Write the structure tokens for this entry.
Amino acid sequence: MASGPVDHGSGEPIGLPDLSTEKDFEGDSFAPLYTTTVTVSGGSASHGRASGRARSADGVLDLDLRTPAELGGDGQGTNPEQLFAAGFAACFHGALSLVARQAALDPTTISVDATVAFGRDPGDGGYLLRVDLVVNWPDVDPERAAPCLEQADSLCPYARMVWRGTPATITLAT
């Protein structure tokens, strides 16, 4: 029997990603390591947030989107803020786990809570997101954890996107 985490669907061990904390890339342009596409359609209300469906190109992600009850929706599906919170928490958790292992600290008890708030921008009346991450890491000395949190913050692409912005393009398909 395999040791370590096991994928119960296949019985095979789940491996760690082959990524590093090193600044081991030099180049003139972005070098993608993984790319995915998720398509959102509008559903019966012709509105992705209210009645949409989100489906990844490989079909692994396939779920209903609904406006949360707090925003006047039925709340009967997930919403973009939940998806963003899950992605951010998972990415930061991965970065912190990698950094913790390199610091000879046990990452098995780490959990990350990501709270995403959707609200109005007082500057222009548009919409904004606010993100708060809380790392739960029982039995670790806060003085040993602090540099790991800082390194994970500089390593995690979601954190980098939130703090520095991220290049994005919007194109109308023809």
User: Anything to note?
Assistant: The chain has two domains: 37-78, 79-165.
